[in-house]
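Input/output pair, single chain:
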Amino acid sequence: MLACVVALSTVGSYVAFLAGNVVLGGFTLILTFCIGIRFLVKPDTSKPGADVSRVGLGAKEIAISLFFGLTIGFGTGFVGTGGGMMMLVVFTAFLGYELKTAVGTSTFIMTFTALIGFVSHALIHPAIVLERWNVLIICIVTATAASLISAQFANRVENKTVGRTTGVILTGLGAAMIYLNYFR
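Output:
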């Protein structure tokens, strides 16, 4: 999945440059809100009777990983994000990962896709870095601190609590972004 996501991320960045800002607007906002609702409705993503000790993927899981890897890769490049939320849904809903494993795996892949997406967008439009470097630094520091704190929290609580917390945060974030973008 990592190879597919990384490969299509650059292609998506170029297509986004050609498409312009109008297309990019509401996709991420609505997706964030919907994924939050999904985790509120079903906070525990572990499948009953699933063999967590099983190592490796079958043909079905490989096909799912390749399909969604290509799709998510294009989407991350197009929108300019890491794709963690989209991977989170794929890992939990389609591949049966427990939430903590899905978050860790998506975060690992997201590190590469976000970096490639950022570099692609910055090369296409350098003003992103040159004019707003102070915002970039604030975002890096804040995201790093929040991820360290949330990892400590997630390691101490049950999967259901992690799912509910994820749902509340994503739903609230999505609703706030929708409000600020469309109703303010």
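The helical segments are 2-19, 21-41, 59-79, 84-94, 99-124, 127-130, 133-156, 159-182. DSSP finds eight helices and no strands in the chain.
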